[in-house]
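Lecture notes, unit on protein representations.

Consider one protein chain, 348 amino acids long.
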Amino acid sequence: MGDWDEFVAPAILHGTGFTTANVKRNLSDGHAMMLHVVGIDSAGNVSQRADAGPFYIDSAAPTLPTETATVPLVSTWSNIGTISFTHSGETDATSGVAGILAGWDTLPNANPVVKFSSAGNIASPRLADGKNIFMHWRTVDSPGNVSPVESDGPFFIDTHAPTGTTQINNGSSSTVDTVEIVRIVGRDATSGTDSSRIEMNGVITTVTMVNDSAIVSGSLRERGGDIFPGWHLVIVRIRDKAGNWSANIYDSIFYSPVEVIDQALQPRATALTVFPQPAQSVAMIVTPCSGSAQLTVSDAIGRIVIQKNVTGEQQTSALDVSVLPAGMYTCVLRGARVDVWGTLSVVK
């Protein structure tokens, strides 16, 4: 015969006799359940009692935590690439909270399976870009009982930079007046374009993108005071709705008022000549400038990888590109009387 109770050594066994090897009984939750067993033969002789335990029983689900904050906010574009939330209030009166099960997917309702500690903040792994990402969580206690599932979303994630093009005066290479029209076309397949930043002659303008495009009309003189005859460069960066910025996008135009007769200032087919194309170890750049100027070489995401000062007219500068990774680079020459750019291809 046997019995279950909360006594380590009970004086009397209250259970009934049984002969099978497996015996089950529904017991109340508790931290100190004991099993006591004795053997009894047909003549009523009783063996010494055997005790086992304590057994910990918890059949009740823990309570669901309360979400207090999410980063990013629901239905708001973010370029973070992860989703985290702060929680509190989860409890389990019997066995205690073992952790939080959490998950992130594209389903409005799902059962999370990844276990996190019950500390107050939980962050997802890096997630794929998308507009329909949901977060799910529930509490789990020590024996594995789980609370109901709570979900939140959708979250919007876009970690990729936009791209685009820009043109001055519909692609014209030169102008005889100081009025220019800068046209910008952006591309962003996830969150869409939001705005663009335009720099010309050191003056920066920010405009809103409408249907992935923007047009800015103004005067070269308004964008930098006295305008010198020669090449003028526009630098554009496009921002998407998640806050990602494109690399620099360039175009240039040659300003030549009718009274200018200096043939050295007349526009050429290419403002900044770079050769050979592609280059492997050394690239030569023809730098059309009088006076001093600064030459920079930037990679595809706008990081400056080479920077040097140059002087003199039509000076040819040699650049060591042997340490640069293969790819496309942008070369920009800027000075008091020059503002030009070109591209460089590097191979290995």
